[in-house]
TrEMBL record:
Belongs to the class-IV pyridoxal-phosphate-dependent aminotransferase family. It comes from Chengkuizengella marina. It comes from the Bacteria. The keyword Transferase applies. This is Branched-chain-amino-acid aminotransferase.
C-alpha cells in the first residue's frame, strides 16, 4: 500500500493534494534544504543527527525553520504512524517559501515551508551487495567548497545530477567525483572509503565530501572494531591500488566497488572488511535512533 499522508506546513494532506506553488523558491531557484532518512523495523535511524544537519543546512542559508527539533522529530514519527510504516524512506524538505518570481533577494520571502514524506522503501538489488558495482571517474568536478559548501544538503542537486547522467550514459551505476584539485571527493550520492596498507581512509569534508550520517556511523563502528581509520587525501591511483573500495549512504548503506575506470579492485568482489562492516551496520540501524511508538 502506498503511503497516503504527507505533512505540509502544519496539516496532513493526501498524496494527490500535496501541491506547492509554482512560485515557491524551492521550485524556482532550488532555494531550500532536505534530508533523506531510513526507518528500520520501527526505528528511525539517527533521526536526531539528520534533523541537526537539516537545521545546520538551513541556518547556513539563513532559512528559519518554523519548528523545533523535537517538533520535527514528532512530525516524522506521526507521519510514519499515519501511513502504517515501520520500514520506510523519509524525506524532510524545507524551502524558503513563496516569493517574488523575479527577485533573487531571499529577504523578501518570510514563509518557509516544511514537508515530510514517508514511503515504503524499495531496497537496492541484492546483486549490488553480492557482487559489488563498477564505477568510473566522470568529467564533472565537485563544486568548490568556497562557492557552494558540500555540507549544505540543498535542493540544488545539479552537480550530482550531472555526474549521474555521465555515469549512466557510460553504462555505470555510479560515478566517482574529483574536486578541482584532482582529489577524490565522493560519488553521486555516497561517500567513499578505501582500505589500503591496514588503514581505512575516507576523504575529508574539506575536499568536497558531504559529512554523511552513514559515513560517520561507519567510521565510529570501524574504530570500535579496532580499525585504523583516517580522513585523508585520496587520488585515483589510491583507489585503483586499494585492497577494497566501498561507498556509504542512507539509501545504499554499504556497497562494495569492484572495478573503477576498468581497473579491478582487489579480488574483484566484495571484500572481507566491507562485508564485516555491513553485517554490523545492519544490526546497528535497528537500535540507534528514535522508536516509532
Amino acid at each position: 500500500m502506498m503511503s497516503d499522508w504527507i505533512f505540509m506546513n502544519g496539516t496532513y494532506v493526501h498524496r494527490e493534494d500535496a501541491k506547492v506553488s509554482v512560485f515557491d523558491r524551492g521550485y524556482l531557484f532550488g532555494d531550500g534544504v532536505f534530508e533523506g532518512i531510513r526507518a528500520y523495523n520501527g526505528n528511525v535511524f539517527k533521526l536526531k543527527e539528520h534533523i541537526g544537519r537539516l537545521f545546520d543546512s538551513a541556518h547556513s542559508l539563513l532559512i528559519s525553520i518554523p519548528y523545533t527539533h523535537d517538533e520535527i522529530k514528532n512530525i516524522v514519527i506521526e507521519t510514519l504512524k499515519k501511513n502504517h510504516l515501520d520500514t520506510a524512506y523519509i524525506r524532510i524538505i524545507v524551502s524558503r517559501g513563496v516569493g517574488d518570481r523575479y527577485n533573487l533577494d531571499p529577504f523578501v520571502c518570510m514563509n518557509p515551508q516544511l514537508i515530510v514524506i514517508t514511503e515504503k522503501f524499495n531496497a537496492f538489488s541484492s546483486e549490488f551487495y553480492d557482487n559489488g558495482v563498477e564505477v568510473l571517474t566522470v568529467p564533472t568536478r565537485r563544486n568548490r567548497a568556497d562557492t557552494l559548501p558540500p555540507q549544505v544538503k540543498s535542493l540544488n542537486y545539479l552537480n550530482n545530477i550531472l555526474v549521474k547522467i555521465e555515469a549512466k550514459l557510460a553504462g555505470m551505476q555510479d560515478g566517482l567525483i574529483l574536486n578541482t584539485e584532482g582529489y577524490v571527493a565522493e560519488s553521486t550520492t555516497q561517500n567513499l572509503f578505501i582500505y589500503k596498507n591496514d588503514k581505512l581512509i575516507t576523504p575529508p569534508c574539506s575536499q568536497g565530501a558531504l559529512e554523511g550520517i552513514t559515513r560517520n556511523t561507519v567510521i565510529d563502528l570501524a574504530r570500535e572494531y579496532g580499525y585504523n581509520v583516517e580522513e585523508g587525501l585520496i587520488t585515483r591511483y589510491d583507489v585503483y591500488t586499494a585492497e577494497e573500495v566501498f561507498m556509504t549512504g542512507t539509501a545504499a548503506e554499504i556497497i562494495s566497488v569492484v572495478k573503477v575506470d576498468g581497473r579491478v579492485i582487489g579480488l574483484g568482489k566484495p571484500g572481507k572488511h566491507a562485508t564485516k562492516l555491513f553485517e554490523n551496520f545492519k544490526k546497528y540501524v535497528v537500535i540507534e535512533g528514535e522508536k516509532i511508538e
